[in-house]
Amino acid sequence: MSGEQSHGSVVQVAVGVVLDAAGRVLVARRRPEAHQGGLWEFPGGKIEAGEDLLAALRRELHEELGIRVEEARHWFTQEHRYPDKSVALQICLVRRFSGEPRGLEGQPLRWASVAELMALSFPAANLPIVAALQTLSAELPHGPA
Ligand SMILES: Nc1nc2c([nH]c(=O)n2[C@@H]2O[C@H](COP(=O)(O)OP(=O)(O)OP(=O)(O)O)[C@@H](O)[C@H]2O)c(=O)[nH]1
After folding, report:
1. What's the pLDDT at 141?
2. How far is the CA of 12 from the centre of ligand 1 (A)?
3. What domain range is 104 assigned to?
4. CATH number (domain holding residue 36)
5. Domain count, the chain
6. Taking the CB of the first residue and of the last residue of the chain, which one, N or C, has fewer CB atoms within 10 A?
7. Is the shortest distance between the CB of 41 and ligand 1 below 6 Å?
8. Distance 142 CA to ligand 1 centre (A)
9. What ipTM was reported for this prediction?
């Protein structure tokens, strides 16, 4: 757990909902041996001690995808208690970035419409995020972007 920013025993995670111009969302498949392995996720990772949320988001998305975040904002916090750990996902909407996302850690990537997201398997903590994206895309005539 060293290097992780924890409040009590809650692991703080910077999570990027990266949107393209068509309103599709970038998802990655977690490596099989990881916590919640094999499931799809939104790119991101643990916030380091003393690290600012958006700095953590920029660092993680650069390390994992090779992109530079140009415009992002905190959207909401989703807390979840798994049997083995508790997480606080700090969900950020990433509306502008530069570079073409690549799975630099070998993780499969795909762009999915909000409707397509519904057919993918996510960790339980992510289900409210998918629901929030549905609401967002229903409110906006041209999708979440
Ligand atoms: N990046 C990311 N993590 C998520 C999501 N949903 C979710 O429950 N998590 C949880 O948040 C925690 C932090 O994710 P991480 O990617 O930095 O951690 P990890 O387990 O791969 O790293 P580790 O092997 O160093 O422990 C994990 O327990 C992971 O299961 C998500 O959509 N994206």
Report:
1. 58
2. 10
3. 6-139
4. 3.90.79.10
5. 1
6. N
7. yes
8. 30
9. 0.91
Establish whether residue 101 lines the binding site of ligand 1, counting it when its CB lies within 6 angstroms of any ligand atom. no
Q: What is the pLDDT of residue 138?
A: 84
Q: Tell me the per-residue pLDDT of 56-76, one tens digit each, with 9 for 90 and over.
A: 999 999 999 999 999 999 999
81 lines ligand 1 (CB under 6 A): no
Q: Is the CB of 22 under 6 A from ligand 1?
A: no
- Asked if residue 126 has its Cβ within 6 Å of ligand 1, the reply is yes
Instruction: Specify if 145 maps to a domain.
Output: no
pTM: predicted TM-score of the whole model, two decimal places = 0.90
> Does residue 40 contact residue 118 with C-beta atoms inside 8 Å?
no
